[in-house]
Specification:
Layout: E1 7-12, H1 31-34, H2 37-40, H3 43-48, H4 50-66, H5 71-82, E2 86-91, H6 97-101, E3 106-108, E4 111-118, E5 124-126, E6 146-150, H7 160-169, E7 172-176, H8 188-195, E8 199-204, E9 216-219, H9 222-235
Parallel strand pairs: 1-2, 1-7, 2-3, 7-8, 8-9
Antiparallel strand pairs: 4-5, 4-6
Helix pairs in contact: 5-9
The protein binds adenosine-5-diphosphoribose.
Adenosine-5-diphosphoribose (APR) binds near residues 13, 25 and 221.
């Protein structure tokens, strides 16, 4: 690939954080092989058993606080800093490893594990501790109405208008570490192809469900293939 690009949209999924020790969802012993997503990642599951949902996210939050970003996150932050053009990073991940690596042009379309939302006053607050039904909202002092600021199945992902605007303008779309099984993110490559102007690349451990839609495919662990890919992008 020797073409110079001007506007890049990058989509990341759980695979980019796998080598940081955070579980993926659909791999062997992924999170959805251990938990029923209907119980811990839907509004109905939260209404039915809020304690179970708080326990699930408390365990993931504790795991995240102990984790570190990896070479793939660092490479994407370097791309944002050094690329002579626009780079938007759209992540399905709720971890803050992109931020810790230095990425700033970043949209968490599925929310953020280190934030909570009060269903009484609507406040969204940074939060690194455990959360439970006895926790009082620091903003409105109401107890028991706090939830993880994470988008559950059946809920609207965040920043969709801005994401579709960026997809309409990009000349390079890169998908990293996602199985391509969850919409709307899984449909982004088709949206970009429909315009026919952009190059599309998939970097993943193995072919995603949408692999055939990508013009270029690079397979291997993210900490190996992402830095090499970023080096190529910065060298043209
Ligand atoms: N390097 C690169 N890719 C990897 C690595 C690695 N070290 N390890 C795993 N992968 C790839 C897997 O091959 C798989 O295709 O990462 C992908 C992870 O897929 P999923 O577990 O389905 O995660 P993701 O695509 O991010 O899920 C999307 O589903 O459950 C919801 O909201 C949740 O954001 C999540 C969404």
């Amino acid at each position: 690939m020797t073409r110079r690009f001007k506007s890049i949209v990058i989509l990341t999924g759980a695979g980019i954080s796998a080598e940081s020790g955070l579980g993926t969802f659909r791999d062997k012993d992924g999170l959805w092989t251990k938990y029923d997503l209907n119980e811990v990642a839907t509004p109905e599951g939260f209404a039915r058993n809020p304690e179970l949902v708080h326990d699930f996210y408390n365990a993931r939050r504790r795991n995240l606080v102990e984790a570190s970003c990896n070479a793939a996150h660092v490479a994407l932050a370097e791309l944002e800093q050094k690329f002579d053009g626009d780079v938007l990073l759209v992540t399905q991940n709720v971890d803050d490893l992109h931020e810790r690596a230095g990425s700033a042009r970043l949209m968490h379309m599925h929310g953020e594990l280190l934030k909570i939302r009060c269903e009484a006053c609507g406040s969204v607050l940074a939060w690194r501790e455990d959360l439970d039904l006895a926790t009082t909202c620091p903003a409105c002092a109401i107890t028991g109405r706090l939830r993880p600021h994470v988008v559950w199945f059946g809920e609207m992902p965040l920043y969709m208008e801005a994401i579709y605007d960026a997809l309409a303008l990009c000349d390079l779309f890169v998908s990293i570490g996602t199985s391509g099984q969850v919409y709307p993110a899984a449909g982004f490559v088709a949206d970009v192809r429909r315009r026919g102007l952009a190059h599309t690349v998939e970097l993943n451990l193995d072919p995603s469900d949408g692999f055939s839609l990508f013009a270029e495919k690079i397979y291997g662990p993210a900490t190996q293939v992402v830095p090499t890919f970023v080096e190529r992008l910065l060298s043209v």
